[in-house]
Amino acid sequence: DKLQVLGAALHALLGPGLDEPIGALTPFRLVVLGGELKAKVSPKTGRPLAASTFRRYVLAAQEFYARQLESAEAIEARQFLHGRGFDREVAERFRIGYAPRHGGALRQTLRAAGFTDEVLQAAGLTRQGGRDFFVGRVLWPIRDSAQAVLGFGARRIYDDDRLPAKYINTPESPVYKKSHVLYGLDLARRE
Predict the structure, then answer these.
(1) What are the Cα distances from residue 188, in Å, to 1, 71, 81?
(2) 168-188 mean pLDDT
(3) Per-residue pLDDT reduced to its tens digit, 123-143
(4) Average pLDDT, whole number, for the chain?
(5) Nearest 5°: CA angle at 89, between 10 and 73?
(6) How far apart are CA 54 and CA 39, in angstroms?
(7) Looking at the chain, which runs of residues are DSSP E strands?
(8) Which helix (H) or strand (E) holds 75?
């Protein structure tokens, strides 16, 4: 069954710690299950920010992270993936990426492309104060059933990571509601 193969592949990527199944779907499936997006209001203009704005920011972050996986700094990330049986083709298929250890690389890159701090933070890409939300981690995109990127899951790969959690997800945002998504269903529907 293709769903079991997908689940086994992603389980290999993430390693121990995700052994509990979610119903018959393990360990990773993602689809928007329902709910409504609440508009964030721009403090500068007072107008609501459209969900498409947040999705554009998150998609730009996905492209940034995917490119970073090919960088010299990401050697440990590539070794980590290789150790779990993920070659370059699989990483590209799942759009796996890498968040650089420099805590401002994403913000700096997207700000140079015209993105604003306000929306970067509201989309869960940076923390208050401007530091990137994900630093020094392997990332995979979290998508809805239509394959739109909503956020990211990330795994620690460095022992000196500032956050003790092995896994973290994008914080709740206008487009990412953890209780409304199930990982991997977008891929299963494509198959």
Answers:
(1) 10, 30, 22
(2) 77
(3) 999 999 999 999 999 999 998
(4) 78
(5) 85
(6) 10
(7) 40-41, 48-49, 97-99, 137-143, 149-156, 167-169
(8) helix 75-83
Helix 105-112 to helix 51-68 angle (10° resolution) is 120
Give every strand in the sheet of 167-169, ordered side by side: 97-99, 137-143, 149-156, 167-169
Contacts of 138 (CB under 8 A, 6+ apart): 13, 77, 80, 81, 96, 97, 98, 154, 155, 157
**How far is 167 from 60, CA to CA, in rounded Å?**
22
Kindly state the tokens that stand for 168: 């973290």
For 66-120, what is each residue's pLDDT tens digit? 999 999 999 999 999 999 999 999 999 889 999 999 999 999 999 999 999 999 9
Better-predicted residue by pLDDT, 110 or 18: 110
